[in-house]
Amino acid sequence: MSTFSKKLLQWYNPNERNLPWKQTNDAYKIWLSEIILQQTRVAQGTPYYLAFVKKYPTISKLAKAPLDEILKLWEGLGYYSRARNLHQASIQIMEKHNGHFPNTYPEILQLKGVGKYTAAAIASFAYGLPYALVDGNVYRVLARVFGIEIPIDSTLGKKHFEEIAQQLLDKDNAALYNQAIMDFGALVCKPSNPLCNQCPFSSTCIALTQDKIQHLPVKTKKITKTTRHFHYFVIHNTAHILIQQRMQNDIWHGLFEFPMIETIDHTLPNDTKSIFGSNKKLSTTSSFSFKQELTHQTIHAHFYEIKLSSLPRQNTVVIHAIKRDLTKYVFPKIIHSYLQVRLIYLT
Ligand code: SF4
C-alpha cells in the first residue's frame, strides 16, 4: 500500500461521513445515490435518495413506474435527463440482466446514464472491484498533494489523473479507499479554505509548501454563461389555467410551463400572436420575476398573470389544467418557486 493510501485510510477511520448509502452494498441503491448526487450537494440529494429508496425499493418497481411519476419525485433536483436515464437503465436491467444489477465494470458502464466515474463507484462500493474514482474531489486532492499542473479538463490531464488514481488505489480495500478520498476532498481539501492545519499530508503537500492552493487544480476552459429571458403568461379563469409541455430540444425537456415567449432582454414583447392566436394588448394584473442559475445558463423568468372570463381554446400544445390539480404536473424549479408564492392567489 502506498504511503498516500495509508495516511488517507488512517485519516478516514475516525472522520468518515455517515451517509445513508454507505450503509448498504446493494448495487441498486448505490447506483440511485450516485445518479442523484451528480452535480448535487449531499445535503440537497439525501432527501431525494431516501424518497426514491422508499417509493422504489427494487429495480423492478422503478422499471414499472410511469416516467411522469419518477419525474415528479425528482422535481426540484434539476438535470432531469438523470431521472429519464434512471428509468431507461432500470428497464435495461430488467430486460438484459433479468432484473439483477450487473456486477462487472464493463456491463455497468453500458447502463444508460452511467459514465466511468459512476461505474467505478458502483463496481467498488457494491462489489469491491479495484476501480479508482476520479471526480472533482479526486482531481483537487491529487493535483494539490502532488503538485500536478496538467489541466484537468484536457484529454492528457484526464488520462494522467486516471492513471495516478489507479496506481494509488488500495486494491484490497477499493470501496474504503474510494470513500476515503471522496470524504477527504469534501471535508478537508475543500475547493476554498482547505483545512491544511488538520491535514495528514500537510508536511509534504506541494500546493501548501509552494503556496499554490488557489492555483491547483488547473483548468483551461472557463464556463461561459448565456442569459435568457422567458416571459410566462399565466392565463387563467376561475377553474383552469393554461399550461404546455416543453418538447423542444432544450433545457427542461418534457416538463410543464405556462405559454411563453423568449426574448433577448427583460422587455415584454408586443407580439403576442403566438400565445393568443391574434395580437392582443396585454392587461396583466400582476407580474413577478425569478432567476435561476444553471451551469451554462442564467434564466430570468417573468410571469404575467392574466385573468380572462373565457380562455383561448386548447390545442395540441396548450392544455387547460384544473387549478387545484396543478401540483400534479412537473414544473422546472423556477416555475415551482413562482407557484409557491402565487398559487394561493391564483386558486
Ligand atoms: S495540505 Fe491543504 S491543500 Fe494540501 S492536501 Fe492537505 S488540505 Fe489539501
Question: What does this protein look like?
Answer:
The protein is an alpha+beta fold and 347 residues long. Among the domains are: 13-130, Hypothetical protein, domain 2 (Endonuclease III, domain 1, Orthogonal Bundle), CATH 1.10.340.30; 226-346, Nucleoside Triphosphate Pyrophosphohydrolase (Alpha-Beta Complex). It has 14 helices and 7 strands. The protein has helices spanning 3-15, 27-37, 42-55, 59-64, 67-74, 81-96, 105-109, 116-127, 136-146, 155-168, 174-187, 206-209, 273-276, 333-346, and strands spanning 226-236, 240-245, 256-257, 260-263, 286-293, 297-307, 318-322. The strands form 2 sheets. It has a 4-stranded mixed β-sheet, covered by helices on one side. Strand 5 (286-293) and strand 6 form a beta hairpin. Helix 1 (3-15) crosses helix 11 (174-187), helix 8 crosses helix 11 (174-187) and helix 9 (136-146) packs across helix 11 (174-187). The protein is globular and about 75 Å long. The protein binds iron/sulfur cluster (SF4).
First and last CA, distance: 64 Å
Radius of gyration: 24 Å
Q: What spatial order of strands do you see in the largest sheet?
A: 4-1-6-5
β content, as a range?
A: 5-15%
Which CATH class of the domain at 226-346?
Answer: Alpha Beta
Average pLDDT for all residues: 91
**What is the count of helical runs?**
14
Portion in helices: 40-55%
Tell me the CATH architecture of the domain at 226-346.
Alpha-Beta Complex
Bound molecules: iron/sulfur cluster
